Amino acid sequence: MIYDLIEATPKLNKKKVAIVSTIAVLVVFMCVMAGIKAAKHNKTNIVSKNILLSDNNNALSNTEISNNIKLKHIASVNINPVYTDVGKDLMSNIYHSQEKVAYLTFDDGPSKSVTPLILDLLKQENIKATFFVLGNRAKANPDVLKREYLEGHYIANHGYSHIYGEIYSSVEAVLDEYNRTRDIVREILGTDYDGHLFRFPGGSTGGKYKNIKTEAKTLLADNNIAYIDWNSLSSDAAGAKTKEAIIQNTIDTVGSKNSVVILMHDAGDKILTYEALPEIISYLREQGYVFKNFYSVIK
Predict the structure, then answer these.
(1) Residues 6+ apart with CB under 8 A from 225
(2) Exposed/middle/buried for 291, CB within 10 Å: 0-12, 13-18, 19+?
(3) What is the H or E stretch that residue 226 is in?
(4) Of 4, 60, 127, 146, which residue is least crowded by CB atoms under 10 Å?
(5) How far is it, in rounded angstroms, from Cα 182 to Cα 134?
(6) 161: three-class secondary structure by DSSP
(7) What is the DSSP code (8-state) at residue 98?
(8) Of the candidates 73, 193, 178, which has an alpha carbon nearest to the alpha carbon of residue 135?
């Protein structure tokens, strides 16, 4: 008997196939989702690291910029004046220069309203001035004081209060007001800055407190502090009511002097001083004056 060989094909169990297929699909789906999640996590870490690196780079960049500004400033001015014998000799001859020199000096600031305008103009004209600051005004306007300093202007001392009855109550009170203002300036600037230069409110001579002032000069000198008045004034705090009057007073008191220390003010009500300043600067340039501040003297 001959048997035909027949290949037996097993019957597929459709239910089992469906279950296995479903499980396979779920496994694939879970693997895909796990991959996507891992990719997102890695991407987040990369982005976070990039942000951190970017922030670090920005911080470094800002530090470098700050250092560059500071280095540039150090290169352009004597950042912390030292009052040496050379400076004392120069101070004693401040009004007797062979060249024509103009020192623009501003008292009673800094103010929020007028000082920034004056600083803008001085920057535009590439002039460095001297600011005789009041301690109470510096304390109220620290950012303006910092700007004066960082833009190369000389920070000098005008006492703390500008109240005659307080500052001239005794010889020691004069030095106390100087030191109080010096300490405020140091705190604001974050340095051990001392300009070694004082301007007596109302001037260093005459008046009701002349004896106190005379004695105070000796006490200041004993503490390595110079003082300076002026030999030209705008009268912006002494009667001049118009821009034109301020300009004319300055021209008249400059006269034919070679070296002029010009008294002006940058208190909040001295907008006319700012308005007169461009013409004053123009006149002085026409007369052949060069502009300096006390970094060229106190050294």
Answers:
(1) 83, 157, 178, 196, 197, 198
(2) middle
(3) strand 226-227
(4) 4
(5) 10
(6) coil
(7) S
(8) 178
Q: How far apart are CA 130 and CA 117, in angstroms?
A: 15
d(CA 190, CA 174): 24
Please list, in sequence order, all residues whose beta carbon lies within 8 angstroms of the beta carbon of residue 147, skipping any fewer than 6 positions away: 116, 119
CB-based contact 241:85 (threshold 8 Å)? no
Q: Check if the beta carbon of residue 199 is closer than 8 Å to that of residue 157.
A: yes
Could you give the CA distance from residue 67 to residue 73 in angstroms, rounded to a whole number?
10
What CA–CA distance (Å, rounded) separates 11 from 54?
Answer: 65
> Which CATH number applies to 80-296?
3.20.20.370
CA distance 211 to 205: 9
- Tell me whether strands 101-107 and 290-291 are parallel, antiparallel or unpaired: parallel
Q: pLDDT truncated to tens, each residue of the chain (299 aa)?
A: 333 333 334 444 555 545 545 665 454 456 445 555 554 444 444 444 443 334 444 444 554 555 445 544 444 444 789 999 999 999 999 999 999 999 999 999 999 999 999 999 999 999 999 999 999 999 999 999 999 999 999 999 999 999 999 999 999 999 999 999 999 999 999 999 999 999 999 999 999 999 999 999 999 999 999 999 999 999 999 989 999 999 999 999 999 999 999 999 999 999 999 999 999 999 999 999 999 999 999 98
For residues 106 and 127, give the distance between their C-alpha atoms in angstroms, rounded to a whole number. 13
Q: Do 113 and 268 form a contact (C-beta atoms < 8 A)?
A: yes
Q: What does the alpha-carbon distance between residue 194 and residue 100 come to, in Å, rounded to a whole number? A: 27
d(Cα 119, Cα 131) in Å, to the nearest integer? 11
pTM of the predicted protein model: 0.76
Tokens of 45: 């870490």
What residue type is assigned to position 282 of the chain? S
Contacts of 212 (CB under 8 A, 6+ apart): 168, 170, 171, 174
Q: Residue 262: CA atoms inside 13 Å, Cβ hemisphere, count?
A: 30
